[in-house]
Specification:
The protein is mainly alpha-helical and 173 residues long. It contains 8 helices and no strands. α3 crosses α6 and α4 packs across α6. The protein is globular and about 45 Å long.
């Protein structure tokens, strides 16, 4: 897989994961970082920015179209209770909830939707999302770098993960 295709695939995967797809970016990020340890920080940065961009779209959808755009999807996924619980957390803690989602089991999508629905300011959202996503992806990149280079004959793992990702997107719609 060429470097350009790796970057585009990771960016698309992270953007869609931040927006709608319930498949963790780490499934693609870790093998990429292991295959090219020198580029792990580049990949972590790319994943962070793309995920925050996807989260920003979800934030805006919740901010200005919660009932019409967001709730039908939340109901389809069966996340109504979790979204209500996350909204309660936002009422208590504000954007800090989004900042710590990178290190908690709270799905990032729920946190971005709750941030938009609860009226968190755009600047607070972006800062908190960058903190949360960067803490997660840089940790994954660091661990992947520390565990060593992935042997070349395992490069097919990335293609399988990308294929599963595309299947997940098709299954959701």
């Amino acid at each position: 897989m060429s470097l350009s295709l790796r970057r585009r695939s990771l960016a698309a995967f992270a953007f869609l994961e931040g927006l709608i797809v319930p498949v963790p970016v780490e499934l693609l990020l870790a093998p990429l970082c292991r295959a090219q340890p020198r580029r792990c920080w580049h990949y972590a940065t790319l994943a962070t920015l793309a995920s925050v961009a996807g989260g920003l779209v979800a934030y805006m959808a919740a901010r200005w179209g919660m009932e019409a755009l967001v709730m039908p999807l939340v109901e389809r996924w069966g996340y109504q209770v979790e979204l209500r619980q996350t909204l309660v957390l936002f009422q208590q803690w504000g954007p800090w909830v989004l900042a710590i989602t990178g290190l908690t089991p709270i799905p990032y999508k729920l946190a971005t939707l709750a941030a938009g629905a609860s009226g968190v300011s755009l600047l607070s959202f972006i800062v908190a999302a960058l903190i949360g996503r960067a803490s997660r992806y840089y940790l994954v990149a660091w661990v992947a770098r520390q565990t060593g280079r992935l042997p070349a004959h395992y490069a097919w793992i990335g293609w399988i993960i990308l294929g599963l990702f595309l299947c997940a997107i098709i299954a959701l719609f």
